[in-house]
Amino acid sequence: MGDRTLEELDGERWGEPTFDSYVVRTCHALRRKPLNTLTDEELRLAVGQGIGLEWLVPLMLQRLTENPFRAGDLFEGDLLASLARVPSSYWTEHPAEKAVLANKIMTAALSDDRLPDRIKETQQAVAELRAALE
User: Fold this and answer.
1) Three-class SS of residue 89?
2) Residues of the domain holding 44
3) What's the confidence (pLDDT) of residue 123?
4) In total, how many domains does the chain have?
5) How far apart are CA 48 and CA 91, in angstroms?
6) Is residue 13 part of a domain?
7) Is 105 a member of any domain?
């Protein structure tokens, strides 16, 4: 699956963007990239926009298992923060992914002795995710 694109996986072709903004152009382009070539920033942006969650959330969880404070272009931990915008219905429908987030990633994040030094956005995202998983 890693060498396939979102267009191949979901069968949707968005075509060229009709609105000229960085987010729109980037989201259209990343749908045509193999999943295994997506950068952390592209992954953060797509998940934050609710694009391809079925395929991108598991990829993000895999990366966050290695480092829960992994960063795209915004701040340390912004990948984790983007998961706070994933609808709760996704976690209900994907209990295995919810377990990975709750048991591996959140445990690692909350046990990191540097957590108090993390920036405010990451701390807030961790708190929101913890509450959503309870």
Assistant:
1) helix
2) 6-133
3) 67
4) 1
5) 15
6) yes
7) yes
pLDDT for position 54:
95
Residue ranges of the chain whose pLDDT lies below 50 = none
User: What pLDDT, on the 0 to 100 scale, is given for residue 115?
Assistant: 64
| pLDDT score of 44 | 93
- The answer to whether residue 50 sits within a structural domain is yes
* pLDDT for the residue numbered 130: 74
Helix ranges (H only) for the chain are 6-10, 22-30, 40-48, 53-66, 78-83, 88-93, 95-99, 106-111, 120-133
- Longest Cα–Cα distance in the chain: 46
* Domain-embedded: residue 1: no
DSSP 91: H
**pLDDT tens per residue, range 68-86:** 888 888 888 888 888 888 9
Provide the angle, in degrees to the nearest 10, between the axes of the packed helices 40-48 and 22-30.
Answer: 110
> Taking a C-beta distance cutoff of 8 angstroms, is the pair 131, 110 a contact?
no
